């Protein structure tokens, strides 16, 4: 696999120092990504390069901040993102908080509505309708999962496709699946996976890819995107008799099955590129929060065989938020350019 590897970039410590020396998202003169660093966790022989999603996401957010400044200067308007949270799940609250913080850092206006766990479906639909009609809101995100008594698909379908920055509307997913059509928005996590591959110099054309998981929000759109880049894609799901056998043939593996460390190191074809979407909390008495996050891939084992791999945390997660900002900026530019849509 041809990869543009940069193993001689600054050390992590140097990079941290440099980041601290300037405001976090001030447009840098050179917004180059230093995608890959040597994997510290793996033995020296055959050590995989780490695809540094945190760093790449930071580069993208800096690019976005510069574009927002230019948009504001030209139009007097800032992109606006509305986040709707129903209930009080701890993880959802954390995600929503980090999305709002990311919005503020790039100069977006952020809107938010928090509804109680027992809010009715109609109340959620009313909030969506209000944001659909608000010209200062260019993107709408309804945090998932919603409480059981609310029909998730009905709520997602109610989001105006012009503001569907999550890319969850069936029309946006459908367009992704059809040759010759382009969706208005591509879902953030799948788009982030592809951006990581692209910015790491991974060639997809003619390669074999395995996607573990087929959910509407991750596995399915990732598989469609990889196929659009001319990879030959196999999707693995809970009824696949031998997941390992499929993964062993893949030059590119995307793991999104929601099973901690299910994809074992010895499933990885030597030299393959591994994108680990999984976010799983596992109890760990030694960790500060009492748990630590692991991916859907056995990271240590995979490091010994992969040519490059994303870590968890610090891989796909930060890219999801960067792509949300990117989608919102794109939507704002379209909507501000044509206010009568
Ligand atoms: N980093 C990020 O930004 C994000 C991370 N995530 C993480 O990604 C992971 C996937 O999320 P999501 O797609 O929402 O999860 P879902 O639970 O919706 O889907 C999981 C998929 O994996 C498949 N699967 C489950 N068990 C197995 C198994 N034993 N073997 C093979 N396939 C299996 C399921 O198959 P079937 O269809 O047959 O049930 C399903 O298609 C989770 O860890 C989640 O936390 C999710 C969103 C964003
Ligand atoms: N409408 C909707 N859109 C979503 O995009 C959406 C959603 N609902 N519901 C939940 C999932 C999950 N998700 C993540 C986003 C960022 C990180 C992230 O930044 N993770 C950090 C770690 C954060 C930590 O330390 O807890 C990392 O991987 O480095 C993870 C997961 C978006 N989702
Ligand atoms: Mg989707």
TrEMBL record:
InterPro entries: Aminoacid_DH-like_N_sf (IPR046346), NAD(P)-bd_dom_sf (IPR036291), THF_DH/CycHdrlase (IPR000672), THF_DH/CycHdrlase_cat_dom (IPR020630), THF_DH/CycHdrlase_CS (IPR020867), THF_DH/CycHdrlase_NAD-bd_dom (IPR020631). It comes from the Eukaryota. Residues 51-166 form the Tetrahydrofolate dehydrogenase/cyclohydrolase catalytic domain. GO terms for biological process: tetrahydrofolate interconversion. Belongs to the tetrahydrofolate dehydrogenase/cyclohydrolase family. Pathway: One-carbon metabolism; tetrahydrofolate interconversion. GO terms for molecular function: methenyltetrahydrofolate cyclohydrolase activity; methylenetetrahydrofolate dehydrogenase (NADP+) activity. It comes from Raphidocelis subcapitata. Catalyzes the oxidation of 5,10-methylenetetrahydrofolate to 5,10-methenyltetrahydrofolate and then the hydrolysis of 5,10-methenyltetrahydrofolate to 10-formyltetrahydrofolate. The keyword NADP applies. It catalyses: (6R)-5,10-methenyltetrahydrofolate + H2O = (6R)-10-formyltetrahydrofolate + H(+); (6R)-5,10-methylene-5,6,7,8-tetrahydrofolate + NADP(+) = (6R)-5,10-methenyltetrahydrofolate + NADPH. This is 5,10-methylenetetrahydrofolate dehydrogenase. Keywords: Hydrolase, Multifunctional enzyme, NADP, One-carbon metabolism, Oxidoreductase. The keyword Transmembrane does not apply. Residues 187-335 form the Tetrahydrofolate dehydrogenase/cyclohydrolase NAD(P)-binding domain. Residues 13-24 have a biased composition (Low complexity). Residues 1-24 are annotated as: Disordered. One of its GO terms (cellular component) is cytosol.
């Amino acid at each position: 696999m041809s990869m543009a590897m940069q193993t001689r970039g600054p050390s992590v410590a140097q990079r941290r120092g440099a980041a601290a020396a300037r405001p976090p998202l001030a447009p840098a003169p050179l917004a180059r990504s230093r995608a890959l660093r040597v994997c510290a966790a793996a033995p020296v022989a055959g050590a995989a390069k780490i695809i540094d999603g945190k760093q790449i996401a930071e580069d993208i957010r800096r690019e976005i901040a510069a574009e927002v400044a230019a948009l504001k200067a030209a139009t007097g308007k800032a992109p606006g993102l509305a986040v709707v949270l129903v209930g009080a799940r701890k993880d959802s609250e954390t995600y929503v908080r980090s999305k709002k913080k990311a919005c503020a850092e790039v100069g977006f206006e952020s809107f938010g509505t928090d509804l109680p766990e027992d809010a009715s479906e109609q109340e959620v639909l009313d909030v969506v309708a209000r944001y659909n009609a608000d010209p200062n809101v260019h993107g709408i995100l309804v945090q998932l999962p919603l409480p059981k008594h609310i029909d998730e698909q009905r709520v997602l379908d109610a989001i105006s496709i012009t503001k569907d920055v999550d890319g969850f509307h069936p029309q946006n997913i459908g367009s992704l699946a059809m040759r010759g059509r382009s969706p208005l928005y591509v879902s953030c996590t799948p788009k982030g996976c592809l951006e990581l591959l692209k910015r790491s110099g991974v060639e997809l054309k003619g390669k074999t890819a395995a996607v573990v998981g087929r959910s509407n929000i991750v596995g399915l759109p990732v598989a469609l995107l990889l196929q659009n880049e001319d990879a030959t894609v196999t999707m693995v799901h809970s009824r696949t008799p031998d997941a390992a056998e499929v993964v062993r043939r893949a030059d590119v593996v995307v793991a999104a099955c929601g099973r901690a460390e299910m994809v074992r190191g010895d499933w990885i074809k030597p030299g393959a590129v591994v994108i680990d979407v999984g976010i799983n909390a596992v109890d760990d008495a030694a960790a500060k929060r009492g748990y630590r996050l692991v991916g859907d891939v056995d990271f240590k084992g995979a490091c010994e065989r992969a040519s490059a791999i994303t870590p968890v945390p610090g891989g796909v997660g930060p890219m999801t938020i960067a792509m949300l900002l990117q989608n919102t900026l794109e939507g704002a530019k379209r909507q501000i350019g044509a206010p009568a849509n």
